[in-house]
Every structure is written in structure tokens, then in C-alpha cells.
């Protein structure tokens, strides 16, 4: 069955947005759902010169188990000149409409994704997940902002579906190298949003220009949360900017190299500031979603 990535992913059911009194957010870690799945490749095609769309189907109900912000570990295939050893972490782009279906959108850039790009429709691939925690989406939210760049668009696409179905208004700031790299329709998938596009090619995506844009948007109307993914420089600028908007929270889906994806190998640790206490946390286990205010800049060891 063909799926159009220009339309919303129907597998993400409407969110009831009812949290218990002790819950911090409506999406909870669902470690009980983590498993290894043998999937069939149902669709695999290029979206543009750099990104490919991959649709997988398993016997398990992946659509119900997977929440916005989570990821899967993929066993990339071997080719005649590529033999990726480690599993590759990949954020979920969408699920459904079939119960066992999960969608991925990835940048073909390294050995693992180049090998992955050779998978043929009808072939098989093993995945492990869903892994990690999820974005926070609370019942009282009125408007949210997403600031995304590159493959970060895929990470936050499911969040837009949940927010839209819950009646939450959306502001989207999308950054890309050039207009042809933007993937606006693939990101929105039919969701109504106030969209602002910026590009490297005309200088509008510089951190200075983006700060002015985001500051103007936050000043014009209250946003409950700003979510981001895909750019460390944008993340660090948002961290400083949000100090001037104490009523607006910030969350980031961190991108980090991983090995096991389950918190055992400690290869994905990053430094975070938790109420003045510096701590190394595992992006795969305690994350990948963290408060923007907790992130510490790049750390040099030695």
C-alpha cells in the first residue's frame, strides 16, 4: 500500500491529553514495549537529492507503541563494499495507518545510511525499539513553536500531528540549506501552522537572523513551549533567548552517536546542568528529549 508523505500520518491517534496528578507530562516512557522486530520494506524512495523515505511493517503493533520523539535502532544491510557493524539510531517520522507500520525519513550521509539506501521493497530489516523518552505535551497548551533544521524535521513531525489533533496552535520555523532541501510539505503533512522558512542560501538562517525572528514571534504571542532539533548552534541560541521569556519552556531532541541505544555502553553521554549540578546523562536512556535549559555546550576532555 502506497503512503503519501505529503499528507498527515494517520496512525498517530488523537491524544486524550489527560495526565494523572503525579505525571509530569502526557507521553510516558514505554520501556515495556521495547522489542526486536523483523520488518518488511513496504516503500522506499528518494524525497529529494539527500533524503529518503522508508516505510516498514512488522507483526507487532508499532503504531500504538511508538510516541513522538522516540527512536528505533536499525540493523543496516551489508552491500558489496559496505558492512555497517553497529545498529543505527533513527527517529520516527510517522506510524500507521496499519498497526505494524512505522515511517522513517533519513539523510543518506554515512556508511550505515548509504547501505540502508540500497534496501529494496519487499526486503527485510531488523529494528529494535521504540527507545527513549518523548516530548512533553500538556493539556493546557494553547500554542507551541517548533524550530527545526534538516533531519530534525522528521523527529518533530509526529509531535505536530498530536498537537494539531489536540487543537493546539502551531508556529513552525523551518531551516534548510536551500529551498529545495526544505521538505515543508513532508514536515507539515497537512497540519495547519504559521510557517516561517529560512535558508543558508540567502543568509536568513544565520543564528542572528533566526534569533530576531523567534524573538519577534514569541513577543507577538505567548507560546507554551519551544521545541527544537537538528542544529546545535540554534539550540544554544534558543537557550539564551528563552531566558527572556520565562513563561515559555524549551525542549530539545538531542542528536548523538550511539552504540547500544539502551544505556549500557555509555557511548552517548552528554553533560547537562540539573539545578546547578553538572551530570552526564545518556541521550539514549534519559533522553533523547531534554529541557533546553539543562544542555551544556560542547565539552572538551583531556
How are the SSEs placed, and which strands pair?
Elements: E1 35-46, E2 51-57, H1 62-65, E3 71-74, E4 88-91, E5 94-95, E6 101-107, H2 111-116, E7 124-131, E8 143-149, H3 152-165, E9 169-176, H4 184-188, E10 194-199, H5 207-220, E11 225-229, H6 232-241, E12 249-253, E13 269-274, E14 277-282, E15 289-291
Parallel strand pairs: 8-9, 8-11, 9-10, 11-12
Antiparallel strand pairs: 1-2, 1-7, 2-6, 3-4, 3-7, 5-6, 12-15, 13-14
Helix pairs in contact: 5-6
Characterise the protein shown here:
This protein has 302 residues and is an alpha/beta fold. Among the domains are: 34-131, Beta Barrel (Elongation Factor Tu (Ef-tu), domain 3); 143-253, Nucleotide-binding domain of ferredoxin-NADP reductase (FNR) module (Rossmann fold). Helices cover 18% and strands 30% of the residues. The chain has helices at residues 62-65, 111-116, 152-165, 184-188, 207-220, 232-241; strands at 35-46, 51-57, 71-74, 88-91, 94-95, 101-107, 124-131, 143-149, 169-176, 194-199, 225-229, 249-253, 269-274, 277-282, 289-291. The chain has a seven-stranded antiparallel sheet with strand order 4-3-7-1-2-6-5. Strands 10-9-8-11-12-15 form a six-stranded mixed sheet, with helices on both faces. A two-stranded antiparallel sheet has the order 13-14. The radius of gyration is 18 Å and the shape is globular. The termini are far apart. Residues 1-27 have low confidence and may be disordered.
Question: Which percent range describes the beta-strand content?
Answer: 25-35%
- Assigned CATH superfamily of the domain at 143-253: Nucleotide-binding domain of ferredoxin-NADP reductase (FNR) module
Q: Which strand order does the major sheet show?
A: 4-3-7-1-2-6-5
Mean pLDDT: 86
- Can you tell me the residue ranges where pLDDT is under 50 for at least 5 consecutive residues? 1-27
DSSP strand tally: 15
Distance between the termini: 53 Å
CATH level 1 class label of the domain at 143-253: Alpha Beta
Oligomer: single chain
Residue share in helix = 10-25%
- Helix tally equals 6
Element-level helix/strand string: EEHEEEEHEEHEHEHEHEEEE
CATH topology of the domain at 143-253: Rossmann fold
